[in-house]
Amino acid sequence: MSLFSKVSGYWIGCQQELFPWMEETLGSLEGRHKKLLSILEMVSIEQFVPSPEPGTFGRPFKDRAVLARAFLAKMVFNMDTTTTLVERLGSDPTLRRL
After folding, report:
1. What is the pLDDT of residues 17-71, one digit of tens each?
2. Closest by alpha carbon to 70, among 44, 96, 47, 92?
3. Closest CA to 79 of 70, 68, 66
4. How far apart are CA 10 and CA 74, in angstroms?
5. Alpha carbon distance 96, 54 (integer Å)
6. CB of 55 within 8 A of CB of 35?
7. The model's pTM
8. Contact 90/29 with Cβ under 8 angstroms?
9. How far apart are CA 66 and CA 16, in angstroms?
10. Backbone angles phi, psi at 39, to 5 degrees
11. Is the alpha carbon torsion for 19, 20, 25, 31 positive or negative?
């Protein structure tokens, strides 16, 4: 199976199953919301980000998977600063849920 057929099969699955399910849950999705959702689904960033180990000493770890998803959102929405992302999260409930 070629890479093209794998990616196109994945994209068809997103369009037929993932997007309608998310629109049922969150309401209508803009183009950038769909782009972010498809990137998050395809990349599965959570598997590449280490989770904190229980019982470690020192400052508590932040959830790094959430931070990685935020960096991807900054990239997709073309935001220069984290402050811009925080402001957008305050006004865009769909982005906040993603």
Report:
1. 666 766 767 777 778 888 888 888 778 887 887 766 666 676 666 678 888 888 8
2. 96
3. 70
4. 24
5. 27
6. no
7. 0.68
8. no
9. 26
10. -65, -45
11. positive
